[in-house]
Design brief:
This protein has four helices and two strands. Helix 1 packs parallel to helix 4. The protein is rod-shaped. The protein has one domain. By secondary structure, it is mostly helical.
Length: 162
């Protein structure tokens, strides 16, 4: 019976490690893709606004500095979107770090349930969730900055047209 428990324990330990590794890898990839996409959206929008301003200035009877300032305000929103996405990416890293430490803080035993929480397991769990929520919030704020920036560009163009 003792040998059967040991084999069961080793299977549970191995399964836990495999699940942890697979989950960690897919979480990292998905989070990075989402946050990098938000960065690219905001960065691309900032470049587009700069190109738009350049085209307006080169036109015959170009715009005044005051008119350009109205359009350029949206750059702050897009720049803020890039910054918040970068912060979300950093929080995503901290989330993954905490989850790896969470898994490595567990103690493997040869008695059922074969894995028990270590001294710091709950600490890593709480910090991991805090960073996780923070990464989501800052990632959403990056998308909000993009939307507000687009509204700001639209309003500036409407003001230029009138």
């Amino acid at each position: 019976m003792d040998d059967i428990n040991r084999q069961d324990a080793l299977r549970v330990h191995d399964r836990s490690r495999r699940v942890s590794e697979a989950t960690n890898e897919s979480t990292i990839k998905a989070g990075e893709v989402a946050i990098r996409t938000a960065m690219l959206i905001n960065g691309g929008a900032a470049v587009s606004v700069l190109a738009f301003i350049g085209a307006l200035v080169r036109q015959d009877g170009g715009l005044t500095i005051k008119q350009i300032a109205g359009v350029s305000n949206s750059l702050l929103w897009f720049g803020g979107g890039v910054a918040t996405a970068a912060w979300a990416l950093a929080l995503s890293y901290f989330t993954n770090f905490c989850h790896v430490r969470l898994e490595t803080s567990k103690i493997f035993t040869f008695d059922h349930p074969y894995i028990i929480d270590g001294e710091n397991t709950r600490w890593w769990l709480h910090w991991g969730w805090a960073f996780h929520v923070g990464a989501i919030v800052w990632g959403v704020l990056s998308l909000v900055a993009f939307v507000v920036g687009m509204i700001d560009v639209r309003n500036a163009i409407v003001r230029l047209a009138s």
